[in-house]
Amino acid sequence: MRNLFLTNTLSHRKELFTPVHPGHVGMYVCGPTVYGDAHLGHARPGVTYDVLQKLLRHLGYKVRYVRNITDVGHLENDADAGEDKIAKKARLAQLEPMEVVQHYTFRYHEAMRLLNVAEPSIEPRASGHIIEQIETVKKILAAGYAYESNGSVYFDVQKYNEDYHYGILSGRNLDDTREGTRSLDGQDDKRAPYDFALWKKAEPQHIMKWPSPWGEGFPGWHLECSVMGEKYLGREFDIHGGGMDLMFPHHECEIAQNVASRGTGGVRYWVHNNMITINGQKMGKSLGNFITLPELFSGSHPKLDQAYSPMTIRFFILQAHYRSTLDFSNEALQAAEKGLRKILQAYRDLAALAHAAGLESAVRGSEGSLPQALVYGEYLDSVAPDQADGASDGVRAIFEGVYDALCDDLNTPVAIAALFEAVRLINNAKDGKEPLSRRDLEVLLRLFDDIVSGVLGLRDEAGSDDGSQKVVRGLMEMVLEQRAAAKAARDWARSDAIRDQLKALGITVKDTKNGAEWTLE
Amino acid sequence: MRNLFLTNTLSHRKELFTPVHPGHVGMYVCGPTVYGDAHLGHARPGVTYDVLQKLLRHLGYKVRYVRNITDVGHLENDADAGEDKIAKKARLAQLEPMEVVQHYTFRYHEAMRLLNVAEPSIEPRASGHIIEQIETVKKILAAGYAYESNGSVYFDVQKYNEDYHYGILSGRNLDDTREGTRSLDGQDDKRAPYDFALWKKAEPQHIMKWPSPWGEGFPGWHLECSVMGEKYLGREFDIHGGGMDLMFPHHECEIAQNVASRGTGGVRYWVHNNMITINGQKMGKSLGNFITLPELFSGSHPKLDQAYSPMTIRFFILQAHYRSTLDFSNEALQAAEKGLRKILQAYRDLAALAHAAGLESAVRGSEGSLPQALVYGEYLDSVAPDQADGASDGVRAIFEGVYDALCDDLNTPVAIAALFEAVRLINNAKDGKEPLSRRDLEVLLRLFDDIVSGVLGLRDEAGSDDGSQKVVRGLMEMVLEQRAAAKAARDWARSDAIRDQLKALGITVKDTKNGAEWTLE
Q1: By the 8 A CB rule, do B446 and B361 touch?
Q2: Considering only A53-62, A142-151, B79-88, B311-320, which range has the smallest mean pLDDT?
Q3: What is the CB neighbour count within 10 angstroms for residue B143?
Q4: Which residues of A touch B462 (CB under 8 A)?
Q5: In principle, which of A47, A443, B59, B362 could form an S-S bond with A391, CB 3.0–4.6 Å?
Q6: Whole-angstrom Cα distance, residue A60 to residue A23?
């Protein structure tokens, strides 16, 4: 099995990945708090950890991928004050909180589906694990690292820090933390500002509350991930992912809870993706640059020059390394759109060249017949990478370049650069400049099936509908015959008219020595 | 507001529907136990109650629609013996039970999405409401209608039947029930065979278990619906739907639990859809006629002559009244496919005729831009029915016929028959035999938007993809120009060749006095 290296936030170093149980990977990623539409800040971790888990499967690991839904307990600020985000939205919309949860969970699933993000193995909800969370609070109280105060239970950070290291992940120390914390309403119950809630007392009018040994209340936000991670992945598991903004306090508190309740931090590799900026600015509702995914897909936001397809967004995210900030702009997205089109066109041409050589793509045959994620999963079980032998030096270099990059801390931009080198070879072969051997075609087709379609999860959006692609291709043949006939008859007016009519439909025709070729925008 | 009549299983009569809270409807429907792919037996309630809730919204009600997911506690047989269905599947597949739950929940959502079944307002899970279920068991114990036995808690049917009527829904009496019950392993804890589990003791190796006052265990299957219905819809709500096979014991037990725990049956209208048979036989794994929805959509089952599209399945289901058995056969589905195509073609022609008269469809404009259910929801808020005045007698009769049928116990087959009458009028108008007035076109277009697209939820599947319809239409114009030119030049060989090439693509061309028209299979 190829070696995979991941940057571990715990060590700030790139480490060789070695799983707790050989051949198996347990991965937990913080999912959304479902009180509004998903935005770019959700798309990035969605796509990043989707590619990581697909790469792990492709390398031969059996992966259990847990991505939670936060449907209770996430307060408006991280200092345990303010209203529950979902309860507030429900109050404003005059809905039962679970109606808000359901609506935005479905919308989130729809957005992830369009981004070709595969479903996690398990998608647990905070509200579905109240008993488990209460049990963990009891353990932390019993261990002496928490205290009850007026119906709420808080984690005693100072006490914990005497025995362990609070700040091990974020590198913060208590003094930074104290200064970093504003004093807020409802903090009076706490002994220290940096203590955090494990269980919050619920006011009588509060809807989302459950009975507990400390009275009616609801769990603190940080608790669910400790509890659901242990329940579904065990006392110690391999990878915990999330956005950089969750490193502190959320993940720092998670580690403290894990140590206090089960004697271990519980996670071997902490992986964090960096943030998205918009024209250099942080994204924020107040800044008017807060763009949701449905707005991106439909182009319905003042900051957008046009609609951007889900695949364009996916490719745009993969063109930057997950640990770098990614700056959003119309220019950058339009460039991503062009680059993606080049790769997908080369994929089509490659499939055609391979077909002429008697080779068939493993992926494209099943287009549209099943949800992509399932086709992918079923198809993937049958593959094994590392097979470029017998190919030309150029193709072998590309093949190795792609795998080396992906296994080097998921370096997708470098992998994509290598794929563009393949695009160049494919175009040369198509134009008859540099033919590719049957083996070269075989290796490249396998590479595009496994990596472009499989691991990177890029798909031909126009090709995803049922059969109407076939109709378009058939009609195009008829129209191009007409055009050829007109040219043969030197009826230039007629052939130009056909070209212009096609252009109006977004279809560009190019004449090559193999006859006319067309691309649909 | 139009009067709606529903057959109430409690009274065995058709009753005028009057909600508990004027203008609002609370509706609970039993969802799937997620341990396998959804089949026709899931599609029928999915579609039936989808149409009911869409009709209720269209009539002006604010609907809270709760459809649960059973992810724990459903044993292999209804007598509280045998293994948990999900735990068994997990054991066989060597998966964590929640992986099985997640996989089949996503597959179920995908199937419902393809069937254009709108998401419920709330989709609660049994495993997410353990605390609430434990609280209800305590209430029933306190009321004296349950007993603890060896770590399990059973409902005392005989005791309950002395004070209330067990059998009020199904019409069974205890003796029938006793005879109807086989004696099975693990029944020894029960005082009587017809007693049912509220809480089951879990064996040590059992994974899905939670702490309770009676030891570690899991809730009985019938309990979740009583508990989640009350939590999200209140002590008494309007409609409870489900398949006829759930009437006994599931719904009978639900009523008993409701009465014992909160002093009321809790549901005003019990609505049950009838079963699906296959060539006259009951569907069953043993009979080899068990066809899942993915198999139907892809045609991959020996009993299937072809693939059937989700819309064909939906239309097939709506062509029978929900209270009649529905017999599945290839012939019946192929007939449904033809009927659906006629209606959708007429819808397109109607939109064209209306467009020529300066009228636009409210629905078809937003095609593909948003998930259908959302387009539908947003669009629906803006409509009000009951407006056929000023239309011709024929159109008014159709309009009233459709609404009368739907409001008469959801009589979709009669409503569809009236719609076929509209199809006849539209075809006559198209062929110039009987023109339709602008008002007629307006009323018919509104009827098709509101009922065909809105309430019945029938959509043009070919039209659901993004933009490639536009391309097909554009290319067809070019090809038909060619054909017209060939005909004008009396080049019959050429025009026939074009017709044949189109036929090969599944496109039929028909010459009408308004020029050539085409339909895509």
Answers
A1: no
A2: B79-88
A3: 16
A4: 466, 468
A5: A443
A6: 7
pLDDT over 60 at A410, yes or no: yes
Give the range among A269-283, B111-125, B165-179 with minimum mean pLDDT.
Answer: B165-179
Contact (CB, 8 A) for A183 and A77? no
Helix (H) / strand (E) element for A14: namely strand A13-16
> Hey, how many other C-beta atoms are within 10 angstroms of the C-beta on A502?
22
Q: Shortest Cα distance from B371 to chain A (angstroms)? A: 8
Torsional sign, CA A218, A222, A225, A230:
negative
Query: What's the whole-model pTM score?
Result: 0.86
* Helical axes B223-233 vs B130-143, angle rounded to 10°: 100
**Segment B264-303, tens digit of pLDDT:** 999 999 999 999 999 888 887 777 788 999 999 988 888 9
Q: Do B119 and A96 touch (CB under 8 A)?
A: no
Residue with tokens 């070696």: A3
DSSP helix/strand/coil, B150? coil
Omega of the bond leading into A249 within 30 degrees of 0 (cis): yes
Q: Do B106 and A121 touch (CB under 8 A)?
A: no
Cβ of B109 within 8 Å of Cβ of A110? The answer is no
Candidates B336, B333, B317, B348; CA nearest to B462 is: B348
> Which amino acid, B132?
E
Nearest residue on chain A to B121, judged by CA atoms? Answer: A99
- What is the pLDDT at residue A180? 47
Q: Name the DSSP class of B208.
A: S
How far, in Å, are A324, A468, B309, B367, B456 from residue B461 at the CA level?
42, 10, 8, 11, 14
User: What single-letter amino acid sits at B158?
Assistant: Q
- Cis (ω within 30 of 0) for the bond into B249? yes
Residue A408: is it exposed, middle or buried by C-beta count within 10 angstroms (0-12/13-18/19+)? Answer: middle
In the predicted model, is pLDDT for residue B410 greater than 80?
yes
CB contact under 8 A, A119 and B102: yes
B188: Cα separation from own chain's centroid: 39
For residues A269 and A15, is the Cβ–Cβ distance under 8 A?
Answer: yes
Structure confidence by residue, pLDDT tens digits, B205-235: 888 999 999 999 999 999 999 999 999 999 9
Helix (H, G, I), strand (E, B) or coil at B490: coil
What span, in angstroms and rounded, lies between the C-alpha atoms of B343 and A247?
Answer: 56
State yes or no: pLDDT of A463 exceeds 50.
no
Q: Which of A340, A274, A294, A320 is nearest to A41 (CA)?
A: A274
In this complex, the residue of A371, A475, A501 whose CB is nearest that of residue B472 is: A475
Q: Which of A211, A500, A41, A385 is nearest to B212 (CA)?
A: A211
Residues with Cβ within 8 Å of A53's Cβ and at least 6 positions away in sequence, in order, are A25, A27, A63, A65, A118
How far off is chain A from B10, nearest CA to CA, in Å?
29
Q: Residues with Cβ < 8 Å from B114, sequence gap 6 or more?
A: B293, B297, B310
Query: What ipTM goes with this model?
Result: 0.84
First-residue to last-residue Cα distance in chain A:
40
Helices (DSSP H) in B13-59: which residue ranges?
A: 40-58
Tell me the one-letter amino acid at A60.
G
Cβ contact A131–B128 (<8 Å): no
Q: Which residues lie closer than 8 Å to B285 by C-beta, 6 or more apart?
A: none
Nearest to B478 among A120, A131, A501 (CB): A501
Which of B125, B465, B503 to probe the A interface (max A CBs under 10 A)? B465
pLDDT of residue B290: 86
Return the pLDDT at B333: 96
To which residue do tokens 């992918």 refer?
Answer: A376
Q: H or E segment at A417?
A: helix A412-430
Place of tokens 């033809």: B338
What is the C-alpha separation between B217 and B209, in angstroms, rounded? Answer: 5
pLDDT tens for B360-381 read 877 644 333 333 333 334 444 4
Q: Cβ–Cβ of A119/B103 closer than 8 Å? A: yes
